[in-house]
Amino acid sequence: xxxxxxxxxxxxxxxxxxxxxxxxxxxxxxxxxxxxxxxxxxxxxxxxxxxxxxxxxxxxxxxxxxxxxxxxxxxxxxxxxxxxxxxxxxxxxxxxxxxxxxxxxxxxxxxxxxxxxxxxxxxxxxxxxxxxxxxxxxxxxxxxxxxxxxxxxxxxxxxxxxxxxxxxx
Length: 169
Description:
By secondary structure, this protein is mainly alpha-helical. It has helices at 4-22, 31-59, 68-81, 88-106, 111-118, 120-132, 145-157, 164-168. It starts with a helix and ends with a helix.
């Protein structure tokens, strides 16, 4: 059986490949690939939020990792960027957030290494639960101004400065 780190790292590569395929032509998003990416990344976030974070928190006596807060802010930013229809501004913002996010998770002392270290006894259970998590339901894109406004706010909370007009570009 694959270890936890390997499972999540491979899922990152799968999602990156879908994102690259979806955005290969900057003038025309491949909506089928983007839809698969969207469902996949929301499921990936759910696995971390439901299983990885709680396992680490429990194993550390209720003390979260120093990166947990930032990871949660970035999860919110990624999810909010998936609400409006994809355009150049949304795609560029996703690229920036995801690149930083993956470093925090896969890097030395990152989320996955920490889970295997601190929650070693729970790692197999976390992996099993994560693998068994069904797809997350996804609503259609929302082009309303409030969707862009929410994305700007969640990006700012995560430390990314972007305007609504930049997202709409």
